[in-house]
Amino acid sequence: MSPKFSFSLLLFSLISTLCAAQGGGGGGGGGGGTIELWCVAKNNAEDAALQSAIDWACGPGGANCGPIQPGGPCYDASDIQKTASYVFNDYFIRHGMTQDACNFDNNAALISLNPSHGGCKFPSSKNGSGNFSGSTNVGLGPASEDLSSSSYIPRRWIYILMAINLLFSAQELLQVFDVSSTGSPKS
């Protein structure tokens, strides 16, 4: 066994241990860790579209828009992104946490980074009233992310280390098999 391959196995073992210690290993019969999700306004959404979606969600949509009213903890007349994000998330939590509940004419997206800011706290899918069903675009959050209560940064490093390990393994395999000739093992 080559030293590079041994290093890859050692690195993979370390990464696996770290993942298991942080709850990302999927052990214990539960099928993996829980990902918290929030529904927020997309960064490229137009202000008029966001305002229309807010008006609908706060009216016929049944979202709780009290916190975005003047004097509320999420009131910010100068930032329609933050206002729409709070409303979209409230609607998402109240209406089954499905992809359809986080669409708003394609002006909303699901993220895994807590968008709470200042005194404005966003409930997540984890502490909502049901389970999310569907695929997600996680990690596409706004620039003002609240990472204070998440393990996002350590997990990002774990994923980076896993990618490096895969690169080392792929390099080792390419050296074992001479890909440039017939594809058969080197003699």
TrEMBL record:
It comes from the Eukaryota. InterPro entries: X8 (IPR012946), X8_dom_prot (IPR044788). Residues 37-122 form the X8 domain. Keywords: Cell membrane, Disulfide bond, Glycoprotein, GPI-anchor, Lipoprotein, Membrane, Signal. The lineage of its organism: Eukaryota, Viridiplantae, Streptophyta, Embryophyta, Tracheophyta. It is a lipid-anchor; GPI-anchor. GO terms for cellular component: plasma membrane; plasmodesma; side of membrane. It comes from Nicotiana tabacum. It is found in: Cell membrane. The keyword Glycoprotein applies. The gene is LOC107827400. This is PLASMODESMATA CALLOSE-BINDING PROTEIN 5. Residues 1-21 form the signal peptide. Its main location: membrane. The keyword Ribosomal protein does not apply.
